[in-house]
């Protein structure tokens, strides 16, 4: 119950107000004086008592979620209504009015309205967009307001620029949106028919002939199979004709309309003109060629029982049984199989093979799984190999072969990609070094040692013999770097010779370089690591392959192996020396494993420990070198010792550390400089012995100790 509007029963309207200015009502817009404060004409911008504010845009409930503006919240959201309006037609006998159907779109983001009229065939009326999208004002006397969402509902009439539109229906989105706003959507209404449209339809129906019509619907087949073509490989045996031969064909069957096209394969230098098609695309009858039909004998439909004179109300009855009709049987996809004979207007064409799409089609539709091709011609003779003249001994084999490739000889091309990948990169040398000895009975040559370097970048070999003092043999380069042929090959032949590869070099292998037989007895650490890293390329360094060989031999001697471990490891420590381990593998496998494979197993299962430095040996080496070279610069030596003895203990060799190691190398450099000043040879063996003592790995029977 509201309180009466009497003094003492109302609140002070100025409570909480902070603005009491008089609002500005008039201003200039585009140099025209207009009223701008019609909505805020009171004191402080408030409306006057009793003033009714007219809505400017549609009001929507806020709901839950973020408070977005209308142009963002209702972007691309449109209310769609089916509507119609009635238009009067004057001075025409056939019609007095028209009923024109249209679509009314209300855009929620800015309350704009658009009216479109669908195109009607042969209407004679300009149709399309009747009202472009914009805000439409209400009819007078409310022309200062605009249409909002409250004015739209099914069954309502709206007036747009003098035309009255009746809303008859809406889409599902529009109905759901209006229900969320609390609007009860009315039931759809029927649109009245247009009298003149009905008259035109009756006139068109009366103009149609009364003869029966049988419709053939091929649209579904076209839409389902458009672009799908079956391809068959076939041939036509025309050898019976004069100068005839067997001709290869390609048959295309179009599933969209059951038509067939045939193209001929014209081989080069066949003497035939390359015709575009052997058979144009069309439906292919099975019993062709057929005699020509008389006029009217072949029709799309057959008619029986004519009642009444022709042209004076006669009636025709469609013959559903097609009595007397000429039937032509055409080829379909079910008639085309591998081995079948197709009658192409009197020419017998045999299908021999098909493509993968055709096989999948017949496999899915007809369940055929056998698609064996039909052999209809002898296999083509193999192309004779290129005869290369034998090597004449001048230059390399590759260089001589390049002179046979063209009139202008070109140098052989090297594998540049392999060279870039296997060339030296920082600490990666990509060079495998092996220690070898000569396989000879001569005592002098048997003691000689050689270093064989294999360069992975170009598959070349280099043999170097380290000089040994008082051996009677001049050391140095034994074999120039280059590719080395394997022995037992003919020199003058057409086939390229086989050269030594990286897989041919391993510990225990025998190689022959220029009639010198070498036995590889050791390798450096980099060679072992490289071969183990690329074990698929080097079978002798593949641990799993070696274990497979060892397992096959160990199963035969299980008891002997157990007794061997009990004898050599009585305490059950689980470790045995490498020499004992090598003897065991030699006894079990015999010649099944080469020396490199035994060393690979030893490296894989070994427990490596850093060796302790023997201080006495180190001091003995240093004193021996000082004595041999008459070293007298003890002042400099004392200064170096005092410099590195930072703790002033007087004993810098008590514990080996990197600082002491650096001091040792500096001492060796000092000795070398002093020796060079005296004109004596530089004692390089001092540095070598120091490196061996200070933790460097040395080869001992092919394994790291």
From TrEMBL:
GO terms for molecular function: calcium ion binding. One of its GO terms (biological process) is regulation of neuron projection development. This is EF-hand domain-containing family member C2. Residues 39-65 are annotated as: Disordered. Its main location: cytoplasm. Residues 75-182, 226-366, 428-535 form the DM10 domain. It comes from the Eukaryota. It comes from Branchiostoma lanceolatum (Common lancelet). SMART domains: DM10. Residues 556-591 form the EF-hand domain. It is found in: Cytoplasm, Cytoskeleton, Flagellum axoneme. One of its GO terms (cellular component) is microtubule. PANTHER family: EF-HAND DOMAIN C-TERMINAL CONTAINING PROTEIN, EF-HAND DOMAIN-CONTAINING FAMILY MEMBER C2. The keyword Cytoplasm applies. Keywords: Cell projection, Cilium, Cytoplasm, Cytoskeleton, Flagellum, Repeat. InterPro entries: DM10_dom (IPR006602), EF-hand-dom_pair (IPR011992), EF_hand_dom (IPR002048), EFHC1/EFHC2/EFHB (IPR040193). Microtubule inner protein (MIP) part of the dynein-decorated doublet microtubules (DMTs) in cilia axoneme, which is required for motile cilia beating. SUPFAM superfamilies: EF-hand (SSF47473). Pfam families: DM10_dom.
